[in-house]
Amino acid sequence: MGDVALLAPVVQAFTQRYPDVGITLVTRAKFAVFFEQFPNVRVVGADFDGRHKGFGGLVRLFNELRQLASFEVVVDAHQNLRSGVLKSLFRLVGVPSATIDKGRKEKKELTRKENKVRRKLMHSVERYAKVFDRAGFTLQPSQTFQFPPFTSTENELTTFLNRHTISSAIPWLGIAPFAQHEQKMWPFERFAPLLDQLYAKTPITIFFFGGGESELAQLEALRQQFPQAILVAGKLSMAAELSLIRQLNGMLCMDSGNMHLASLSGVPILSIWGATHPDAGFGPWGQGSEAIVQIPADILTCRPCSVFGNKPCWRGDLACLNAISVEAVAERALEMLGVKIQ
C-alpha cells in the first residue's frame, strides 16, 4: 500500500505541470482512492486475483486498456512481472515505455551483512519522478504534498466521530502499531505501558489504526484496557480514514503503510524503525529526523539488514526494536504533540 501511495505526489506534480495530458493509472481497485481526485487522471482498478489473473488476465487487461485510449507511452513505476508483461504487449503495438530504476544494487550494498556501503539513497518518490522524466515529463514533486480533501466522506466520518465523546481542544494522536513484517514492529506488549504514560502526562484522544483480523483482535484487547481510546481499524472506508488522519495532531507508527498515509496527509509522524532504515529510500516523505525513532547504525552495526523487513534477524534478538524503550517513545511522542514535559 505504501509504495502505491507514494506515487501520489508525482501524479499531482504531473497534473499541475502538464494539465493537457491525461493519465490512465492502473492499480488495484482498493488503491484508486489515492489518485481519483486529481484532474485528468483515469484510474483503472485491476483485478489481479480475478479477471486479470495470470497471463491470460493480463492480455485481457491490455485489450481493455487499448479500448480506453490511444497511449503515447507506458510508464512502469513498479517493475514487476505483471508490469513487464503489459509493457511487452504495448511494445508489440508500437507504444514505447520507461521503467523505474529501483536501485537494487545500492540497496543490496546498504543492507548486506558485511562491508555495508552506508549512504542516503534516492527516495521512492524521487525514483518515481525520474521514470516520468525518462518518459519525457520533467517533474518536481512537492515536499509539502497533502492528499486533497475527501469531501464525499464527510458524513461517514462525522457519524463515526459522533459515536464517541471527543474534544477538539486536546491533541488527537493516531497509533498504528503494525507493519507487514515482524522485523519492523515494536513489541506490541509495550503499547499498554506507553498509553499509561501518555494518558498520565496529558489529556489526549488516541485512535487505533490497523488492518487484518489478528491485528483487530489485538487492538480490541488493548482498547478494553483503555476504553477511552477509539478503534478506527475496520470501521471506516479508506477515504474516510484518510480524512480522519489529516485531522490528527500526530501519528505514532512503524515503517508501514500508515506512516506513508499520515506523512502524505501532512500530519507530523513519529515512526519506529527496526530492521529497515530511512536511508533505503522509504522514509516519510517531506519529514526529517524528527519523525524517526531508531537505534543508530553506528551503535547497532547490523542495521539495516533488509530493505523491506522481510529477512530474519541475524542476531536472533531483534535488538533494533527491543532496545527502544517505552520512555523514549513516550517522550518523543509528547514532543511531537507539543506537550511540555514537566
Automatic annotation (TrEMBL):
GO terms for cellular component: cytosol. The keyword Transmembrane does not apply. One of its GO terms (biological process) is lipopolysaccharide core region biosynthetic process. SUPFAM superfamilies: UDP-Glycosyltransferase/glycogen phosphorylase. Gene3D superfamilies: Glycogen Phosphorylase B. GO terms for molecular function: ADP-heptose-lipopolysaccharide heptosyltransferase activity. Pfam families: Glyco_transf_9 (PF01075). Keywords: Glycosyltransferase, Transferase. PANTHER family: LIPOPOLYSACCHARIDE CORE BIOSYNTHESIS PROTEIN (PTHR30160:SF22), TETRAACYLDISACCHARIDE 4'-KINASE-RELATED (PTHR30160). This is Glycosyl transferase. The lineage of its organism: Bacteria, Pseudomonadati, Bacteroidota, Cytophagia, Cytophagales.
